[in-house]
Amino acid sequence: MSIELEDVERAAQRLAGVAHRTPVITSRTLDERKGARVHLKAECFQRGGAFKFRGAYNKISSLDKGALRRGVLAYSSGNHAQAVAIAASLLGTRATIVMPEDAPRAKLDATRGYGAEIVPYDRWTESREEIGARLAEERGLELVRPYDDPLVMAGQGTVALELLEEAPELDLLLVPVSGGGLIAGCATAAKALRPEIRVVGVEPETGDDTRRSLVAGERVRIEVPHTIADGLQAPEPGELTFEVNQRLVDEVVTVTDDEMVEAMVFLFDRLKLVAEPSGAVGTAALLSGKLDASGRSVGVVLSGGNVGAARFAELVS
Predict the structure, then answer these.
(1) Which of 105, 135, 183, 219 lies at a 20 to 30 A Cα distance from 33?
(2) Nearest to residue 197, comparing CAs of 229, 173, 226?
(3) 271/164 Cα distance (integer angstroms)
(4) Nearest by Cα to 180 from 145, 228, 215
(5) Which ranges of 249-308 would DSSP assign to H, the alpha helix?
(6) Residue 78 designated active-site
(7) Which helix (H) or strand (E) holds 302?
(8) In whole angstroms, what is the distance from residue 168 CA to residue 302 CA?
């Protein structure tokens, strides 16, 4: 159930002409400030506003006709929800999404706008996994997990595949971490193409389940973290993703909510990029000095930009 570079390359073939090949952006100011050569992979320009479309489309496009006729179901705080809704629409099937009641309004509205049915739940007292599994069985729907699926991981790995095609000299790669699908896919591609590259995950300080799990050598579950990074609130690494990340991820660092906001402001002011808090954690780790990037060629995955104007203004004020 693990993945290899060939799985990521097959995902890239399925996504060709469907997913956006997002730009890699540089900043002289950022380079000078950190003494590094920094390459930002701007997944805020992906379909649905985040990297999640890659994995969702790779998974759903691999289903047989019977499964597509019945429809798909996913659980998500927002980005995976939108990705599944878009992919389902493109592939002629229906999407049902289990979403927390307190998900950002912009993400709820966008998911509905893409044609999905939303089933709300309380993230603090209910299990989305249990609700999703029950509904999928009751309705005969194909479950599209947000990260713990080889096809989803492989799709997310195309982020690093594209980044290394444009910046093959990278020796450090910073990737946001929640359930671990993005970093598992990216680490698989990056380590296969450039074995000496250092892959570092970035988590919210209050949601460091992957960091703790890597230290403990086994999956550690924490309480649902309180953080502005609503896309990084998984309380435990995925089973499949952790197996990959335990082998391939070199380190996980954490950032505070304030550091995320500072990174959002920097990206907006200096590069004219809109990043949601979850998407800005890699830049936050770099700006806050959580790791030494001096003299290195650094890739940073800016994983998404799904933050409404009002929420963005509230955070940066």
Answers:
(1) 183
(2) 173
(3) 21
(4) 145
(5) 257-271, 281-287
(6) no
(7) strand 297-302
(8) 18
For the stretch 99-151, pLDDT in tens is 999 888 888 898 999 999 999 999 888 988 899 999 999 999 999 999 999 99
Catalytic residue among 203, 259, 262, 276: 203
Where are the extended beta strands (E) located within 148-215?
A: 172-176, 198-204
> 203 catalytic, yes or no?
yes
Q: Is 207 a known active-site residue?
A: yes
| pLDDT score at 1 | 66
Give me the amino acid identity at 92: G
- Whether the Cβ atoms of residue 291 and residue 253 lie closer than 8 Å to each other: yes
Q: 213 an active-site residue?
A: no
**Choice among 43, 142, 149, 209 that is catalytic:** 209
Selecting among 27, 77, 178, 278, the annotated active-site residue is: 77
CA–CA dist 100, 151 (Å, integer): 25
Cβ-contact 244, 3 below 8 angstroms: yes
Residues of the chain with pLDDT under 50: none
- pTM, full prediction: 0.95
Q: Are 98 and 131 in contact (CB under 8 A)?
A: yes
Query: Is the four-CA dihedral 306, 75, 58, 116 of positive or negative sign?
Result: negative
150 CA to centre of own chain: 15
Q: Is 178 a catalytic residue?
A: no
User: Measured between alpha carbons, how far is 121 from 293 in angstroms, rounded to an integer?
Assistant: 41
